[in-house]
User: Which sequence fits this backbone?
């Protein structure tokens, strides 16, 4: 149970870290095929997500039937193709990804998952905008440079600007992080709908049972208005009701027994 709680808590920050690493992968590739010295030479410029965010030069690769043609085409590319302008949407997306990693330290589960879902959705939107703007700018810049160098615009069949696999991996990870946080938000909400502000990274423990209230003593009775007669004392030894009754009774002494001489 403890391992499951830790995995659920750090799944979202780990996803944001992977998205940040995807910025090192190719996001846009531009390919142009031209004829130089009677040889078909294909030149490719690869822009990573980091190149879009900081405005750096792309990486070049040349495919030519001869090594001399490849070296000459590579030299021309490095001389004529400059760095791309900084893409503001890519910068904002990168900031949101860093904020998503930092949101993993929030202790309250409901606040952490809400922040993770909101940051993931926002980063996906800005990352998509950076990809579209970057592709348009790269196409415009390379078309102008090719026209200046060759004296004619490039053939659309020989000039392509495409989205590379790094962008799709980053976008898929952001969607997965957003979906995981939304599912976690459903799990940390009780049946009543109120979020549980747990500090342990998961649903909080159930509240302790409420003890029953103590019994209420009945109110004291109000004293009666009529006086209560005093309780008579317990009866003692029997006494005459009239003190003269004992003296009025004659005292009869016991009859003396007859002696034998008196009978004769």
Assistant:
């Amino acid at each position: 149970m403890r391992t499951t709680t830790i995995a659920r808590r750090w799944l979202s920050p780990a996803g944001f870290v992977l998205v940040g690493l995807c910025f090192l992968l190719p996001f846009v590739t531009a390919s142009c095929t031209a004829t130089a010295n009677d040889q078909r030479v294909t030149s490719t410029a690869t822009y990573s997500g980091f190149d879009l965010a900081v405005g750096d030069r792309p990486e070049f690769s040349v495919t030519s039937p001869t090594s001399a043609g490849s070296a000459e085409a590579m030299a021309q590319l490095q001389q004529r193709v400059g760095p791309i302008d900084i893409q503001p949407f890519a910068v904002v997306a990168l900031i949101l990804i860093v904020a998503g990693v930092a949101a993993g330290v929030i202790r309250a589960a409901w606040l952490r998952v809400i922040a993770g879902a909101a940051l993931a959705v926002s980063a996906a939107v800005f990352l998509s905008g950076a990809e579209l703007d970057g592709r348009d700018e790269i196409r415009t810049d390379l078309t102008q440079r090719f026209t200046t160098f060759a004296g004619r615009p490039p053939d659309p069949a020989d000039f392509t600007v495409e989205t590379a696999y790094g962008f799709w991996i980053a976008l898929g990870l952001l969607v997965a992080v957003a979906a995981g946080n939304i599912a976690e938000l459903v799990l940390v909400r009780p049946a009543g709908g109120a979020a549980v502000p747990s500090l342990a990274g998961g649903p909080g423990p159930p509240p302790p049972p409420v003890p029953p209230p103590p019994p209420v003593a009945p109110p004291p009775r109000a004293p009666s208005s009529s006086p209560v007669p005093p309780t008579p004392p317990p009866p003692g030894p029997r006494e005459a009701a009239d003190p003269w009754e004992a003296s009025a009774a004659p005292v009869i002494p016991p009859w003396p027994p007859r002696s034998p001489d008196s009978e004769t």
Q: What stands out?
A: Helices lie at 2-22, 49-54, 67-80, 88-102, 109-150, 165-187, 245-248, 260-263. DSSP finds eight helices and four strands in the chain. The beta strands are 26-36, 39-48, 59-63, 159-163.
